[in-house]
Amino acid sequence: MEIRRIGNSRATHGTPTPRPVNLPFTKASYGRPGQQRQSDHFDDCLGMEHITFLVAVVIITALAFDFTNGFHDTANAMATSIATGALKPKVAVAIAAVLNFAGAFLSVKVATTISGGIVNEKAGLQPSIIFAALVGAILWNLLTWLRGLPSSSSHALYGGLIGATVVGVGFGGVNFTTVVSKILIPAVASPIIAGLASWGATKLAYLITRGAPSTEKGFRRGQMFSSSLISLAHGTNDAQKTMGIITLTLISAGQLHKGDGPPTWVIVSAGLAIALGTYMGGWRIIRSMGSGLADIRPPQGFASETAAATVILTSSHMGYGLSTTQVCSGGIMGAGLGGPSGKLRWGMVRRMVSTWGLTLPAAAVVSGVAALVAEQGDWGVAVVGVALVLGAGSMWLISRRQPVHAGNVNDSDTATVDIPVTAGPTGQTTIAA
Amino acid sequence: MQIKWAALAETAGVSLAVTLAVVAVFALGNLALSRREAAVEAGTGKGVPALVAAGVCFAACAAVVLYGISLIAAK
């Protein structure tokens, strides 16, 4: 999940009136023959029914993505707070949900671009491409959740957009320079910086409080604030991404004027979707991040969360796109290494890092295929929609075999502490099951 | 391709410095609270200076958090 404001126009909450003139994203501008619009009576347009179906599908899928984004990323803010006992699991996800919802309203600026310049949007992004991108992102989010691996929801979305654009428009539609400078470099740099800051902060915290009894309580209290700050920043940034997608789709359908901000119902529904997802709690990922990487004590949890919050806010302020997930994981890794034992479960580290590398290309491939099918028309969109529902449903069913929930999210603590932790991939692979 | 290494380095440097500063100040606040408890338990005083020091430390942390929230909201 990317923390970068991808737009800067002020929200206006007026009621939009359909006005089909000068709408660059309308069906007519896709250059399909026989659908040139000539009259102001938008509903008379031949392609209207098709647009409406697709728009409805895109909005629902965008909200579904928002939901997966929420529960995929609960762990970012709350994993270490739950692991150290700073917050009870249910309380933690409730706080995260409320703050994600509040975060959606915190900023009045909205996304005017979906991709932040990664794909060329000047010609207009077809709803079918957005749909295919969302499908790839959702499926990848669910797969990584099933395996308990934190991966970037934004990278999944961007990968999806890239894949769908390459299929729909061609390689020329993707700005690969922007991909490198806005995604790849921050993706590599940000977890390292967060890890370094967290490592140093952990060392410092232990150095300052050495010999002093009962300081863990204070760090636990601090964690409530640091994790709340991450939740708030997450809601602001990621809920806005969904708002941007829905708003641009509505513009492309002629329901909103170009340059309009999201209507209130879009803000509320995006905020609700991400909050609901957050409250569901991606417990598998919380377990991996909270106790799968290292045994985290309150000073380490506070240091890693502070490092993550700082890196997220600083980068956001400087206009860098980065993944909250990777920053938070990097912070936990640094705190693990900087802690009293200085131990890290390298098997889990390796699995996480390889997942980060896979996220973009994997989502791109899935979305590319989805775009290929969805472009065939309504039946293609329906086929992709059914495939999405079946894929998501089967992953949920598989997850029921070994459910992870609020009651057993910290259980792996006891399971893994008993095993002598060695710097190897063996013995730790059950954590995320 | 133009990559702004200076901006990247600045972001990294600021992040590092702020994290270390906040965690250090918070840890000092915790240390002060711990000293106060020790002083009260030992009966050597009420630990007022330690309490004041802790208050200053936590207030500084709160200020940084508020600044962070204002950064989110202002964008």
Task: Give an overview of the whole structure.
The complex is a heterodimer of chains A (433) and B (75). Chain A has helices at residues 48-83, 89-106, 127-146, 153-168, 176-208, 216-252, 264-280, 283-292, 298-318, 324-338, 346-374, 378-401, 412-417, and strands at residues 9-10, 109-110. Chain A is mainly α and 433 residues long. A two-stranded antiparallel ribbon of chain A has the order 1-2. In chain A, α2 crosses α6 and α6 (216-252) packs across α7. The longest helix of chain A is centred in the middle third of the chain and has 37 residues, at 216-252. Residues 1-50 and 413-433 of chain A have low confidence and may be disordered. Chain B contains two helices and no strands. The longest helix of chain B is centred in the N-terminal third of the chain and has 38 residues, at 5-42. The radius of gyration of chain B is 18 Å and the shape is elongated. The interface between A and B is large, with 49 and 36 residues.
Summarize this entry quickly:
The complex is a heterodimer of chains A (433) and B (75). Chain A is an all-alpha fold. Chain A is built from 13 helices and two strands, in the order βααβααααααααααα.
The 3D shape of chain B can be described as elongated
Helix count of chain A? 13
Number of alpha- plus pi-helical segments of chain B: 2
Average pLDDT of chain B, rounded to a whole number, is 88
Largest sheet of chain A: 2 strands, antiparallel
Mean pLDDT of chain A: 81
Oligomeric state of this protein: heterodimer
Helix content of chain A: 55-70%
Number of domains of chain B: 1
Distance between termini of chain B? 27 Å
